[in-house]
Amino acid sequence: MKIKQENASLFDMLDIFSTAISRMKLKKRIQKIENTASEVKKSSLLGVASKTTQNDIANKNRSKIRTSSKRKVFGREALRDNIMAKLRETSPSSGKSPCYSVIGIYGVAGSGKTTFARYTRDYIEKKCKEEKLFDTTMCIHVSETFSVDDIFHEMLKDITGDRHSNISDHEELEEKLNKELHGKRFFLILDDLWVKTKNDPQLEELISPLLVGAKGSKILVTARTKDAAGALCASERIKMPDLDEDQYFLMFMHYAPGGTSVADEEEFIRVGRVIAEKLHQSPIAAVAVAGRLGTNPDIMFWKNTANHGMLSDTMDALWWSYQSLNPDIRRCFEFCNIFPRRSKLRKDELVHLWIAQGFVKSSCATEDMEDVAEGYIQELVSCSFLQPEVDDSSEEEYFTIHDLLHDLLAKVAGSECFRIENTRSHRGEGWDEEVPQDVRHLFVQNYDAELISKKILGLENLRTLIMDVVEFNTPVEEKVIESICKRLPKLRVLAVAFSEKQIGIRKSNKFSVPKSIAQLKHVHYLAFRTFGSCSVTLPSALTKLHHIQLLDFYHGKLMLEFPFAELVNLRHLFCWPSLKFPNLGRLISLQTLPCFTVSNEQGYEVKQLRDLNKLRGELLIRGLENVKSKEEALEANLAAKEWLTDLRLEWDGDNDTRCSPEVEAEVLEGLCPPVGLQILVIHGYRGSRYPDWMVGKQSGGPEALQHLSLSGCSQLGPGTEFEAFPHLRVLQIWFCSWESLPGNMERLTLLKQLYIWCCKNIRSLPTLPQSIEELYLASCNHELMKSCKTAGHPNWQKIEHIPRKYIG
User: Fold this and answer.
1) Which residue in 105, 404, 708, 718 is a FRET match for 19, CA 20 to 30 A apart?
2) CA dihedral of 528, 529, 530, 531, whole degrees rounded to 10
3) Do residues 785 and 805 make contact, with C-beta atoms less than 8 angstroms apart?
4) Level-2 CATH architecture, domain 244-409
5) What CA–CA distance (Å, rounded) separates 108 from 225?
6) Where are the alpha helices (DSSP H) in 360-402?
7) Alpha-carbon distances of 350 from 197, 370, 406, 491, 785, rounded to whole Å
């Protein structure tokens, strides 16, 4: 029993470790490779003209947004070199002077300050890597109403990769930041600073942890005004220069083709120059107007645009670009105005919210609204209304909206969208403004029971209520949620997000959804985003919400078995993977499912998955030891689930509850995944052999597989051959009892990363492909790891060509 418990804990640790690596870092690297190829295909000389009709908007491949997350920079080399020379300067040593010096750049909104600041950061990190100018770099957007604590969290994220959201006390947060910056030469970008004087109390708080850095640290400030750019006593304030005419035109035409082949046609170039001249060197206007032109490569459309009188003013140019969008896309974009400026907007969340509000229109019954909505996003990205954001800590896709576009949205959305930015910073001020009575979509930055009771419950037309954060010291009174359900019956979206620490300090550590939830008869999107330490009790009345499309409980533990099968319109379910629910097979519209656990009880058979062919993204299937035959496994019909990209198959239990190795082999044979699968994880498999679809003896398996992880596989002898996966880029082998790796490894000519952990029986390595860039070998046979470190040893020779190796 003790050994079994130890193994279980190892597998739990493996689960965390493997997930963290495979689904974030490694998946991103695969994506990076694909993006490179995609960018080549997108070049103006190879593209095909796109149309903005409803049929063409749908993105049938459900792939990531392929537009580069970083704008191409034109004509800024001189400014870059000037800034780099200042960054290389060594500050004179003085006990009184701070460890850092400051450079300020100022210019009007939309002049390219943020793009240039990020360009400078990337230039330092990539082009100046060998110089080691700085120990750490941080790029922080400040905004007009910034929170010092939020900025400290963002600094920690840039330094350590972790926001340290669990730290809510200001002094503790500052102490942590002090520790991380102590003695380090840092480069800090403070983008869009609004303060005017160095005596601003928040600014003083903001810079106090920076004093522990090493001499030679630098701060680059961008601001709209000269005063704000010099608020930190910038030694020099530089006005953001206009691009020269030729560079501006190059930028304009770079974005104008947008995947079309017009760039080399003389007439388009002539008309394009006329349009560019009207835009008065405004970068944001160039990107927005050019993006719209690129979606319509008709020369008459370009000529009509050139004759348009609205393009000479930046805001008018943005308005023209906005007006030329499809009306349904405009409505979706207007909805984004409920979010605070510069918020990171998660792609999937936008898609689900738009659909819940009925903003997304499909042109035929077989077309999924999610596909159409992703097409909307692609359209908004093409004209830079949504700007992709890089977040290395997450595999999800995020977007931001430029401040000038928020100004535009504020005018067109009017009072229909509203946000309550009741930040709880050290100013100690509450929110005391009025809420428009005709508001339909409302975002509340922090949960506040009094605010809800006094100003929100009377909003009769409210369709959206999002409470973004429940602070750690603010309990959610269930009577308040009950009042919302009773007083706001027209809601289509109700979302409450608990902070992790808030859940942790609740005395009962429980949250009960009130029975009155049944009165929200129009709700499509219901989210109580809690954490694993919180138990969520759901009432049976929830089954009366027949329109519900999305349920989101995040990591909360649902306390009882729930008859979700009655919610026949459910499309997305987010919750802790331990949830069990019977008769899942009725939910044929289901697209997102965190986990399905097979058991020997009625309603939990693997055949429940048979008709769920709209499932997409990730799927974890547990309890496969309860599947007793190949015929039973085939009833899962996994091969038909063409939208699945990430599949995890798990066996568990001891020898008394497991089938024979031969039966397990038959079961895995019957669980053949779809052809388009990209990531496959197999855990706890004890079958006597590997299936034909894995070893290349039959067609129809996941031939495009890029990431394979095998853990806890107990077969003796050599590991499985990988003939079926010629496109494999990442291979992970954990806790496997193989005596050797497959002999055909060198045929995996695209393999980039190889991870081997806790495989005690492997004593030698086969010939490895030259393509491998990273090897991780840990807790394996001592002699194997020693030989890999011994120069001249055959194992050492087989890994000598790998640039990045970790052995230990």
Assistant:
1) 718
2) 160
3) no
4) Orthogonal Bundle (1.10)
5) 8
6) 369-382
7) 38, 10, 16, 17, 48
pLDDT, tens digit (0-9, with 9 covering 90-100), for 226-260: 988 888 877 779 999 999 999 999 999 988 875 45
- Going by the DSSP 8-state scheme, the letter that residue 630 receives in this structure is H
Rounded Cα–Cα distance for residues 625 and 685 (Å)? 9
Name the stretches of the chain with pLDDT < 70. 1-71, 91-96, 196, 258-264, 391-394, 423-430, 471-474, 499-509, 531-533, 559-563
Q: Residue 259 is encoded by which pair of tokens?
A: 């995947």
For the chain, percent helix, then strand, then coil, each to nearest 5? 40, 15, 45
- CB count within 10 Å of CB 8 equals 11
> Contact 700/693 with Cβ under 8 angstroms?
yes
The DSSP line for 654-676 is -TTTSPPHHHHHHHHHHTPPPTT
**Local structure of residue 740 (DSSP, 8 states):** B
* Angle subtended at Cα 443 by Cα 441 and Cα 447, rounded to the nearest 5 degrees: 135
- What homologous superfamily is domain 421-425+434-569 in, according to CATH? Ribonuclease Inhibitor (3.80.10.10)
Fold of the 77-239 domain = Rossmann fold (3.40.50)
pTM of the model: 0.83
What's the sign of the alpha-carbon dihedral 152, 155, 159, 164? positive
Nearest to 278 by CA among 251, 306, 297: 306
Helix (H, G, I), strand (E, B) or coil at 161: coil
Residue 194 three-state SS: coil
- CA nearest neighbour of 545 among 527, 512, 569: 569
Q: What's the angle, vertex CA 26, arms to CA 22 and CA 29, rounded to 5? A: 160
Q: Are 382 and 371 in contact (CB under 8 A)?
A: no
C-alpha torsion 45→47→53→56, nearest 10: 180
Cβ pair 439, 374 in contact under 8 A: no
